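Moderator note: this is an archived Q&A kept for reference. The question asked for a predicted structure of one protein chain; the sequence and the answer are reproduced below.
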Amino acid sequence: MKVAVIGSGIGGLASAIRLATKGHKVAVFEAASSPGGKLSEIKNKGYRFDAGPSLFTLPTLVDELFELAGENPREHFNYEKLPIVCNYFYPDGTEFSAFADQENFIHELSNKLGEKESSLRKALHNSKELYDTLADLFVYSSLQDIRTFLSKKAFSAYAKIPFLGFTKTMSKANEQLFENSKTVQFFNRFATYNGSDPYKTPATMNIIPHLEMGIGAFFPKGGMYSIPHSLYELAKRQGVIFHFNSPVDHILLNDKKAIGIRSNNADHHFDRIVSNVDVVNTYKHLLPSINPPKLIVNQPKSSSALIFYWGVKKQFKKLDLHNIFFSKDYELEFDHIFNRGSIFEDPTIYVNISSKNNAIDAPNYGENWFTMINVPNNQGQDWDLLIAQARANMVKKLSTILKVDLESLIETEDILEPRSIESRTGSSLGALYGNSSNNLFAAFLRHANVSKRVKNLYFCGGSVHPGGGIPLSLSSAKIMAKYFR
C-alpha cells in the first residue's frame, strides 16, 4: 500500500520504519525543515543543545527498529547506561545522587535522608510489580482490542486490582510508605514524566520509577538528537521518502474514508494515512468536517515547560548529566501549575548538561545548560511577564545553591515556552504529553491508534495511546503498525 505519515516526530519516524519493513511504500510529510519533532537541537556560539526530551529510557525500543530492518543497531546507534541517574538538591542544603545500582541507591537515600532501607526496597519492588503487571496491557497493547482484556496478563492483573493503586493518589501512597518528606518529594517527581500532578494522579503512576531505577537511564552517543537522526537515516535506507517544509493542510476524504493529503496546494493520494500530529489539531485543522470524540479531546491537558538553553562559561564538578533542584513546597508548586495556571515563585528546576557526557557540546571552559521548569499549558496567560519573573527566580535560586553569580556566567541564551512549543510542534496548548493523567480513567481516555470515525486513518505519537515521551511514542507506532495487514 501507499502510506502517508504526517509528521516526523519520534512516533512518525518509528511508524514509517515499521510500515516500510512490512513492504509498504511510505512517504513522510513534515512541516519543518528537518526530522525529530520535539526531539530537535539548537546550536549557538559553540554550544549545542538537545532542545526536546533529555531522558532516555527503554532503549531497546529503538534497537528493535533496526533489528526489524535486518540491521545491527550497534553499527548505527549506540548508548551507555548512566551510573548516576540524577543528582538532587533540596532547599535546606541536602544533596544526594540517585545511583543506577539499586543497593547503592538505597544506601545513599538511607544515609542522606534517614529513610528506612526497608521502605525504599518496598517502593522499588512495588514499582517493578506495577510494571510487570500493567506494562503489557497499558504500554504495549491496544485498549480498543477486546483481546487485550481477555489475555492471561489481563486476568492476572484483575486479581491484583486492590493492590494497583487505583484508589489513592501517587502522593498519598508515598506519604504512607515513607517517613521523610524529602523521600516523598523524590518519588512524587516521577509524575512529571507524563506531565501530571502527583497530588491528583493515581498511585498506579508509581510504575514510572521502575523505568529509571529498575531498567535504567541511558545516554545516546552524540546526544538525544542522535535518536531521530539515526532513525531518519534508517527510514531512508528502507525506502521511505521524506518531504520537508511540507505542512499538510487537509486529510482528503471520500465518504469518511481517508484517500490522501493536501500539502503545498497539491493533492497526494494514498491508501492509508498515519497522523503523528497532535490528535486535537488533527481533528481541528486536518479533519474539520469530522466530529471529534469530545470526551477524549476535551480531557485536561498535561503541563508544559519553560526551558532556557544557557551557554554557561564555567564548569561545575558537583553537577552531572541530570540535576534536580527541588522547590520548598511541592504541593503549592503543582497547585500553581494545574489549578492557578501560573508559575510558583520557587519552582523545581531541572538542569541537563549533555556536555558532561558529550564534551563537544560546549567549549572546554563551559557547559551547555538545558534549564527547565514545569509550567501550565497555554491558556492565554501573560507569558512575557511570567517568563521574566520565572527567569529571575531561577537564576537567583541556582546562584544561591551553587554559590555563584550565574547571571554573569550566561553567555548565550535561547528560550522555549508554551507558546513556541505549540507553534513549532503543533502540540495543543503547548502541552508536552497530550492529556494529563490526573484522574483514574485517564489511561482509557487517550485516543486510539486506529480511527473509528475515518476509515484508513491511524494515529501515533505522544497525544494518543499509550501516552507521551519517547518510549510511549515508540510504542504507539508499534501498536498502530499491528493493524496494517
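Archived answer notes: The first strand starts at residue 2 and ends at 6.
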